[in-house]
């Protein structure tokens, strides 16, 4: 044996030392070197793209202006924008999300950022509160004058002449009342239903107590007539008092609107404005009740009849609050309350007549008990006395809002 082939463990076949998959033969070393140089490690998997969290608008006020574009374009001062924002549910707490402490400062920024032409009116800085005018003051006096003349004619006439005087007086009072309520501080756009039920309440104030007392005793046996001895007596004091109270009602409504407008211009937040207007509203209602009570005493003294203070004051407060709410654009709730009040009075009358049917005497028991205990005036006192506080609570919520006073003052 000679050479390497004689060594133990040496393979006899050529190429046996080559590894599987390794090229052999001439140039095999160069091929292996080239393969090792050109082979690269496998690429690492690409990382998953990170999701960038969505951000809100960089300018939240701009987005709010786009949402309320019409409001910003037609507003003549920041107060109208503040009132419009409040009407859409934006409060001082909501304004903090727009980097403002209250709605008024937010409205000022929105108003300042609206592009305007040179002809567009600027914000009004001077007081534009309407001053009392002789025209609507005279109109407010007309219902009282015409009603007083009608009552005097009813007390001075008899028979057919009294009937004609009553019809002519009712027409005159209706015309003068329309003149007082269509112009001036008491002007409002109410529903026709409110007018119908208001007329019912006034008619009940004249005829209702007498009819209720007559029905409770089995009547009425005659037509209504003036005088306490009549089978169906007419009560003219409440209606005459309310007609005379149109003048103080117009003055107080004007004063309330003007002073609330002034508070709106000086307040720096919705809560501050509501807190300043609430005692103003309560003072206005209290002043009207005081004026009505004084007129009621004077009217009773002039006619020589007892003054029905509870029912007259309750009815006066109800009608004044209903009109004040309607003047500021809240006519739905007064219409509902007036309808419920008139329905309750009509139901009380209907139960007395329905009790005359067979087996229906029990229907008159509640009303009969009230009449026997406190008199016929209990029904209007309870109905109007319940409705008036309900409207007062509603008024303290609605009339203390900036949107109730933001409209521009109207020259009457």
Question: How would you characterize the overall build of this protein?
Answer:
- It is a single chain.
- By secondary structure, this protein is mainly alpha-helical.
- Among the domains are: 60-113, no CATH class; 188-404, no CATH class.
- Helix content is 63%, strand content 0%.
- The protein has helices at residues 28-38, 60-67, 69-74, 78-87, 92-95, 103-113, 134-156, 159-182, 192-216, 237-244, 246-266, 270-303, 309-327, 332-354, 365-374, 378-398.
- It is elongated and about 80 Å long.
Summarize the structure.
The chain has 412 residues and is mostly helical. The protein has 16 helices and no strands.
- Reading the helices and strands in chain order gives HHHHHHHHHHHHHHHH
Mean pLDDT: 78
Strand content: under 5%
Put simply, the count of helices is 16
* Largest β sheet strand count, sense and barrel closure: none
Shape: elongated
Q: Unreliable runs, pLDDT <50, ≥5 residues?
A: 1-8, 16-22, 52-56, 118-129, 408-412
| Helix percent band | 55-70%
Task: Tell me the structural class.
Answer: mainly alpha
| End-to-end Cα distance | 139 Å
Number of beta-strand segments: 0
Radius of gyration: 43 Å
Transmembrane segments: 136-155, 161-181, 193-216, 236-258, 279-303
Region (Disordered): 1-60
Protein name: Integral membrane protein
Organism: Streptomyces chromofuscus
């Amino acid at each position: 044996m000679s050479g390497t082939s004689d060594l133990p463990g040496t393979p006899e076949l050529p190429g046996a030392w080559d590894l599987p998959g390794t090229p052999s033969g001439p140039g095999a070393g160069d091929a292996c070197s080239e393969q090792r140089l050109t082979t690269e490690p496998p690429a690492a998997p690409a990382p998953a793209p990170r999701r960038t969290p969505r951000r809100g608008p960089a300018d939240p006020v701009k987005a709010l202006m786009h949402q309320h574009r019409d409001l910003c374009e037609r507003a003549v001062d920041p107060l109208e924008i503040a009132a419009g924002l409040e009407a859409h549910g934006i409060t001082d707490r909501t304004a903090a999300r727009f980097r403002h402490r209250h709605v008024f400062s937010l409205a000022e920024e929105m108003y300042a950022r609206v592009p305007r032409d040179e002809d567009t009116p600027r914000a009004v800085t001077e007081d534009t509160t309407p001053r009392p005018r002789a025209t609507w003051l005279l109109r407010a006096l007309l219902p009282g004058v015409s009603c007083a003349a009608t009552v005097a004619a009813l007390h001075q006439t008899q028979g057919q002449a009294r009937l004609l005087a009553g019809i002519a007086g009712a027409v005159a009072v209706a015309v003068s009342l329309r003149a007082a309520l269509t112009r001036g501080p008491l002007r409002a756009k109410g529903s026709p239903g409110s007018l119908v039920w208001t007329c019912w309440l006034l008619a009940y104030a004249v005829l209702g107590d007498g009819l209720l007392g007559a029905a409770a005793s089995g009547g009425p046996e005659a037509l209504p007539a003036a005088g306490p001895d009549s089978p169906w007596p007419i009560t003219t004091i409440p209606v005459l008092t309310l007609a005379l109270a149109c003048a103080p009602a117009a003055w107080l409504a004007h004063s309330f609107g003007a002073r609330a407008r002034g508070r709106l211009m000086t307040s720096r937040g919705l809560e501050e404005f509501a807190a300043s207007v609430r005692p103003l509203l309560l003072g206005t209602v209290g002043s009207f009740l005081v004026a009505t009570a004084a007129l009621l005493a004077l009217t009773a003294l002039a006619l020589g009849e007892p003054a029905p203070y509870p029912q007259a004051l309750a009815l006066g407060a109800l009608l004044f609050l209903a009109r004040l709410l309607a003047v500021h654009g809240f006519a739905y709730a007064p219409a509902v309350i007036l309808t419920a009040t008139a329905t309750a009075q009509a139901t009380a009358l209907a139960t007395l007549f329905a009790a005359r049917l067979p087996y229906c005497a029990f229907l008159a028991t509640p009303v009969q008990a009230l009449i026997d205990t406190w008199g016929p005036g209990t029904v209007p006192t309870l109905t109007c006395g319940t409705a008036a506080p309900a409207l007062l609570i509603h008024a303290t919520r609605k009339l203390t809002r900036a949107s109730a006073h933001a409209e521009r003052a109207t020259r009457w």
